[in-house]
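A quick aside before the break. I want you to see a complete sequence-to-structure record at least once, exactly as it would be stored in a machine-readable document. Don't worry about memorizing anything.
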Amino acid sequence: MTLLAILGTNAIAVPLSPAFPSEELRYILDQSGALMLAASSKFATKADDVLDGELEKKPILSRWEKIVEGSKISEDVVFEDMKEDKGGMMLYTSGTTNRPVSLLHRHETAKVLTGSRKECSSPNPRL
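That is the input. The structure line, written in tokens, reads:
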């Protein structure tokens, strides 16, 4: 739900791995310009450790409880007014420079990847 909320507001999500050292997570927060760090109670200690270190600009810490049961509504989620040049997801991978490297996937990329699933299941071998 957190990811859907971020994407629905045309913001950029930056998923973080709690397995990364705190120093690397601080680098990602600084490099991405993150304004908020969302953490469940399970990772509260890690989030506190990351924010206790030196950061160019400390993001707001938002603690969320894990949702264990979803809504009973069976309607499809529909995003409206999605801006192609706004929002998306910034993913970090291990780089060859010993620092994580980012790649920004805009909403349009996600729409193509998820919206074309039906087309990709066609028998056309070029797809």
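Two observations worth writing down. The chain has five helices and five strands. Residues 22-32 form the longest helix (11 residues). We'll return to this after the break.
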